[in-house]
Amino acid sequence: MSAGAVGAVFAKPGLVIESATAHVEVLVCAPDGAALAHEAEDVGHGHTRRLTPLVTQALARAQVEPRALGWIAADLGPGSFTGVRVGLATAEALALAADAPVLGASALAALALSSGASRALLVPLVPGGRHDLYAGFFRADLRGRVTLLAAPRVAALPALLESVAEARALLPRGSGLRFVGPGAAREREALERFAPGSTGPEWRFAGLSAADLAAAVRSGLGPAAGLPVPGEEARPLYVRSAQAEERVRRAALAARPIRIRDFAEPDLPVVAAIERRIFSDAWPESFFREELSQAMAWGRVAEADGGLAGYLLAWVGAGAGHVGNLGVVPEARRRGVARALLEDLLERAAAVGATTLTLEVRVSNFAAQALYRAFGFRLAGLRRGYYRDTGEDALTMAWTAADAGVAPAVSGRGGLAQDAGSPAGRPTTTNPG
Ligand SMILES: CC(C)(COP(=O)(O)OP(=O)(O)OC[C@H]1O[C@@H](n2cnc3c(N)ncnc32)[C@H](O)[C@@H]1OP(=O)(O)O)[C@@H](O)C(=O)NCCC(=O)NCCS
Predict the structure, then answer these.
(1) Residue in 237, 249, 313, 371 to alter for ligand 1 test, most ligand atoms within 8 A of Cβ
(2) Active site residues per annotation
(3) Would you say residue 303 has pLDDT above 90?
(4) What domain range is 371 assigned to?
């Protein structure tokens, strides 16, 4: 569905399902956004049992037939796995009956966008189990415009507070810090010890709100505000994988070897085709060719299942390096391909004595930020409005050998290899499983 068509659906009433936590809300919205009916209940673990009756009740009270709905919105998470799944499945079933689109927003973006904060690092918190919290990172400017700052994280409070400090360092001096959402209510004392005044004024301490979700999906703001691209399929944002999925994934991972070798001339059209598939601002083949001819170029590709699964292009010299491009084909993701390419890059950095590595990444690219963070890259800077297509900011992330406890060694080679079939002169990196 196009972005324009999404706007048109709001001419009809809509249904909003907020079920990412135990506090469930269902809202029926008029075309002007006014509430026609609103149901709220603390369901505990009873999402499966309670959501449909609440939806039925709300529609009856609003006197809206399911097939008259123009749009249905659900919370994409993070939060309760069951709550998010039941909410999305219910929204999808209703959408099928009404021939209407399913829209969505993350719990964190809905909280951030409704908070009314200005000139602050804005950290929405949602409980994520007994000790853990899901945290989002947004910035609110002087005029109260809220934009996404970095990928969400799930962790216990001490680790999250380290990320808060890291994100805060990116904002101008004098910026405030504000924690909002039900997770802030749970950890209020510790948050106030960390930063006095950071939990006031209280926002959504009693639970997530369907009205916030409705406002977020109707806003039309895209990835720059931490919302899905308008018109794209609503996908859940779990932040951490479900345990069962994790087991299946790890089993598949163990079975598939990954081979890393030099980026060769015949790889150029293949890589350029992958690039067009996975990036909205793809590098053309000529750009790869030119960059690979630079003295410090480090171009490598990953092969898996007999095909080219991923590639990395960096510039690495004595002292410092920069990652220019990294991509993995969608079918080969979450199987360690990027991990293998980055491990290989760090070996190269050690070999030539590069003690710092930097890169730029979109604020909305959660997968890449999680990947780089896992390798010890940390937030180091913010370039506002860097990506023209979405108006998103770019994060600079930096890795230092000292922080990673790595000692630099001696020099090697890189650049564009002449023969795709020739031995790469580098050890084959195999998936660690
Ligand atoms: C980002 C990208 C390169 C990751 O490639 P990948 O081969 O799927 O990543 P890996 O399987 O090696 O993941 C290694 C670690 O990174 C993190 N990670 C990768 N993808 C993630 C995701 N979607 N969500 C959360 N964490 C993720 C995890 O910590 C993962 O370890 P785990 O699987 O043990 O949990 C890939 O998603 C991609 O090509 N995206 C589009 C292009 C792009 O964004 N490039 C980077 C531009 S800066």
Answers:
(1) 371
(2) 360, 372
(3) yes
(4) 249-404
